Amino acid sequence: MLALVTNDDGIGSPGLGVLARVAHAAGYDVVVAAPAEESSGASAALHGAEVDGRLVVEPRDLPGVPDGVRVLAVAADPALIAFSAAYGAFGDRPDVVLSGVNRGPNVGNAILHSGTVGAALSATALGIRSVAVSLDAAEPRHWETAELVAAHALAWFQGVDAGQRTLNINVPDVPAGELRGLRQAPLASFGAVHARIAPADEGSSTGSGDHDRDDQSVVLRYEGTERQTEPESDAGLLQAGWATATLLLAPYADTSLEVPPL
Hints:
By secondary structure, the protein is an alpha/beta fold. It is built from 7 helices and 13 strands.
């Protein structure tokens, strides 16, 4: 069994090592393939850079991954990485895609814009079981708590018939001993998501790897008020110290309302 680990924070994020360890401990062979540059807010975009018709891919070293795990920096958004993996771009077709651990929450209907969730949804749409994991801090300290929750979630998720569902996990940035537990939660009305904003003269966020230009970009956080006004939503429960689990179903065609023929 093969697990693909990706994210939208880029190849240098410690969250990749967290999910690589979770997958390895669960018995998977693991490959890490993540954007060479920050791709927050990419949603399910299929943007990438190519040379002679091939995605630009470079091997990297990444602290925290188990021995023998391949680590690849890819000049592409995370959804394109998941899409390409399904067709053998990085070896065998993965049995599961783990996306994250994202720096910052991905809650509420705002997950529509998340590159972390977009990668997972893209994998699910191609018939690959997928989990997105986020940690509720811009600069997390308690990666071990995310690792604990992600391992629990994967152990459950790999043993159920999930159909076309993606599992979205959010974890408060607290020590494991202070975590209240894990609860299934509905999406907040808006929620929270991060987006990368680049200078107007930047050629591409997934282009040549021009780090001088990329360093000029900023990551903005968009957040609603539901942490206070919707306490039983994923945003509200996360604020209260719970890890949250939400099953997402997309793409989904609703035939309950009939459109008149022309």
